[in-house]
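Here is a typical protein record:
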Amino acid sequence: MKNDKSWVFGLIVIAAIVGLSVWGFNRNNNEQVKPTVLGESTDNEEYFSEDATVMYFYSDYCSWCLKQKEVLKTLASEGYRVKPMNVGKNQSLWETYSIKGTPTFVAKNGDRVEGYKEANDLKKWLDEHK
């Protein structure tokens, strides 16, 4: 009789563990979490436009690109846009455009500026390459 109760109790414990695991998994997948960590995709930011005259080469895993992102958000409120060129998702961009590091901005005429830029410096450069 004791073995029967132990078996039933064990089955109930296993079912409870499985049920809680499934519930926790579904709960985490249904929550809307605003991405704020390295590796977050930034492909639909307000400062991106496919029609922009300046290409912006970046990676979701680049700490300087995350810092540059804040500058670009500020400039977006003034109407500045850049064309997204995610080298993390498209490795061929490194060679095609001779990109040495991120962030990098490249204008249609081939002029480029490499590395993180403060808002005023980037704004001036973007104005020169409209």
Remarks:
- The radius of gyration is 24 Å.
- The chain has two domains: 1-33, 54-128.
